[in-house]
What does this fold into?
Amino acid sequence: MDVTPNSQDPLGAIPVIAPGYSYRTLTDKLVGIVFTKNTPTAWFVFMAVGFALLMGLTVSLCYLVMKGIGIWGNNIPVGWAFDIINFVWWIGIGHAGTLISAILLLFKQDWRTSINRFAEAMTLFAVACAAIFPIFHTGRPWLAAYWLFPYPNVMGLWPNFKSPLIWDVFAVSTYAAVSAMFWYIGLIPDLATFRDKAEKPWQKRVYGILAMGWRGSARHWFRYETAYLILAGLSTPLVLSVHTIVSFDFAVSNLPGWHATIFPPYFVAGAIYAGFAMVLTLAIPLRAIYKLHDFITMRHLENMAKVTLVTGLIVVYGYACELFFGWYSGNQYERFMLMNRIVSGPYAWAYWLLLLCNFLVPQLLWIKSFRRNIAVLFTVAMFVNVGMWLERFVIIVTSLHRDFLPSSWDMYYPTRWDFMTFFGTIGLFLTLMFLFVRILPMISIFEMRTLLPEATPKQKTEGGAH
Amino acid sequence: MAHHTIETPYYGLMAEFDSAQQLLDAAHKVREAGYTKTDAFSPMPIHGVAEALGMKERKIAPLVLIGGITGALAGYGLQYWTTVIAYPINIGGRPFHSWVSFIPPAFETTILFAAGTAVISMIVLNGLPLPYHPVFNAKRFHLASQDKFFLAIEAADPRFKDEDTRAFLMGLQAREVVILEH
It folds into this structure.
């Protein structure tokens, strides 16, 4: 793997940007995606599907507010169902964006440059989708403020800080705020490019306001790079903490199937796994629709496939640990939970489907020709998307539906409103994503410029090259 | 940089360059010639240009440290005050001051305050948002966000002399040198 930008790989690896680009051609191509009169037909198709599903979301949420959460399939003992499954699924997807934008920046992985912008956008939109579930599962979101946020209310009540659920509020809201700042800061220089390239006065004005008068001053760049690096350094522990705290929602409770010390690392790995699968799911169609093959090369897709494979194996290690912990505990409830989850329970099919999606199918990525095959990559990514959803279903529903006393046992069946809300958030995600690619640069233009060889001049230094 | 005096007949002179290398070399020469009120403009960050122009400011990192410490204290203090002082409730017989439970939210507020400080200090120290700046008066300056490189010397610079400075800039292989109106 390259550690220095612009290095010519002696082994002839695929470059991170196709040869033959200058600052000008690169800028024109990336700006042209937005300032065009020929929006691709596929954009309208995706937007239409996303928007239709989004309308379903508004209907289902309105009905929820009118009727209460009884319209969902949640019951006792399965008090947490689709709402938390979908919440964890979406939050996890967001993690890959931060990994790409922050952790890979710290590791100087220059291939991150062409995918970090839309991966960060994906993070923001995924967090927005995730937030819908905890907010609306309260049934009366306008009353939820004093359960969720410590503010001086007339009752003088404060949230219970000994509960992981309030930690989760802090973690997710910090994550949303920091991701938004990171994303916007990254956009400023490109917004200035848009301001300068725009032809219509109103476009100049809108992008100009958003660019805040950025003029590319060397001193500004210096502070900018310092702040950006610090943000990357802060986002790295943040992203690890967010899914750790999400896993505490489960691990801190005393329920067999949830109460396991492996949960934090296993959840973090699962989040990155799900996220990279989602980045592949988005990158492959976007690359085809906007003909970005020169910027999102096979090298990017292959690297993402490798990260998917590795994090997938960590997740499978987590599954193995869960089995071992259950058996080794010698606790009859733990052992019953495992047997019920894997063999005898009514949801055992979900566990085996999960292993198919998250364990068996991704093993294809060991083979180089499959990693370089778009159709195989996209299929594997889809399996992982489904598999990571099933993982949360298995953890949540199978652990809850067989309570300690057989008299409390029950089955969980999602209702049409559960599905409508879930698919509605997918619609919200698609709508936001496709609006984003229509009006903002989906690839960081100024960072792509730094990948060109002429962007790194020879330094005149006293102490030799740095 | 944001404040310039109107006493000079115009803001300064700006040279245009074609490459990052030329800009970096020019920045070194400008500094060696003793100019202090200068700035360079480029479509992407170029390592070493700010230092070449004599920028020594390193304020963001210490500010972020202060922000982070403030965030940690604020987060922990909020939890301590609400659960021990404002409305103590016995939950499961645990001590009011359950410091272990207070760590995750305090960690998050640390990150939040530190990240916010990094962003705000970058924007404020850069003097942004700034809707108007004389460098935008140069006809070709819109290329500074695309593929060209610029270097400006302010007329307020003690070393600045109309013709000498212009000749000096031209001598740095500038593509052209233009006057920047206020």
About this structure: Chain A touches chain B through 69 residues (CB under 8 Å). Confidence is low (pLDDT under 50) at residues 1-8 of chain A. The radius of gyration of chain A is 24 Å.
